[in-house]
Design goal:
The complex is a heterodimer of chains A (about 350) and B (about 120). Chain A is α/β, with parallel strands linked by helices and about 350 residues long. Chain A has 6 helices and 19 strands. Helices cover about 20% and strands about 35% of the residues of chain A. The chains are: A alpha/beta (about 350), B mainly beta (about 120).
Amino acid sequence: MTITVQTKTGEFKFENDEGTETLLFAGLGAGLTLPYECATGTCGTCRARVMSGDVEMAWPEAPGASRLNRGKGDVLMCQSHAKGDCLLRIPADVAAGDAVAAPRRFSGRIEDLKKLTSDVVDFEIALDSATNFAAGQFMVMTSPVVEGGRSYSMVNYTPETDRIRFVVKRKPNGGFSNWLFEEAADGCEVSLFGPLGKATFRPGEDGDLVCITGGSGIAGIMSILDHAAQAGHFKANKGWLYFGVRTLADAFYVEELAELVEKSGGALQVILALSDEAASAPTHPDYPSIRLEEGFVHAVAARAMAEISGQLNDRTIGFVAGPPPMVDGAIRVLLSEAKLPPGRIRYDKFS
Amino acid sequence: MSWIKVCKTSEVPENSLKKIWAAGGVPILVAHYKGGFRALPPVCPHMEEPLEESGVIAGCVMTCTKHLWAWDLKTLEMQGETEKPLKTYETKIEGDDLMAFVEQELLYEFDDEDDMDDDSFFNC
């Protein structure tokens, strides 16, 4: 079936065989730069109006659908499937990009699943074919046992690879995270669409890096710092990572972070912000290059920025990842304390 | 309506935002940037976020932390990927008072993008 989209920048057509992919994934897969942020029904960015044709929205109660004008036929493309040819209007600038480099569908198998803390697991996915992704990007994963897709950022940075690593924090009522924790998910087949997301570190970029994150938001930041270290970015630039966890026992990837500090020749500083316990020492007991501070991560970063903002170069890039209140607080710190212009801040907000 | 007193200039320190219910029940967001004041509708024109909470002023630029829409408050130029301009009330300072010219309450069009009904919007 053929999907026609009218956009601010002209009309485009793409094919959606059998309607198996959502309108968003079918269009992105065809190389169109359709608007999206979360790709999983939360943010409302991929809004479109169905002008003609039959389109079914799989999850009408999606949080991102609350502002839709349903009476006029508005849908979230990430939650909608076409039942036949249709015509959509999308209130955004859209361009026809490179279909070869476009995100696409993969199948994969969960391997090397391990528990990092009482509520965090990480695992690798063996993909059915190799992919390139930018540091900071994510994939939407679906499993045969839990309904709906979940977005996970890649932890590793490896060009042209068929192995990607994810980290997942258990949520009290999270069907997906509970499946990964309790069931024998290791070895299970999953389906993925990606890579997606624009909060990325781009090759050749120059500038100090200030990263603020909490919990599993560290995933994309690990990939960004890994890429930066591999590219020799810290030879000429400094970096700061503020990583928020509840207690020292909840911290993970500490060994990998200590390695990154070493690889950076000390130009990267890593600060663990402990929200629920006092920092018993100024540095981590096993990894003295990792500093400890007490408080919520954005508050710890705010205190530090007041001192280090004068050292930041004028190309500094801010990266923020985490749940919405943490991201909003961290963006505020980067604007008012680090004095970054809004155009130099990239964020990944998940809920 | 006409010129109305909004607040004392000292009530809104530089780099801060304050929502004030002005005479006639009109909500006005006072923005104090480096070098001046703006009187604005109190929500972000993007998704109606209350800017008193979501807005940050640094220098002359006001940014909504929700999606990083931003404007230069001096020139009113949109920054980066911002897609809608700010609406503003004309202001003047008389003594210690910030005054705004309010003919009627300024509102943004949110509902659901009447522009989607506008064929010329889509160049088709």
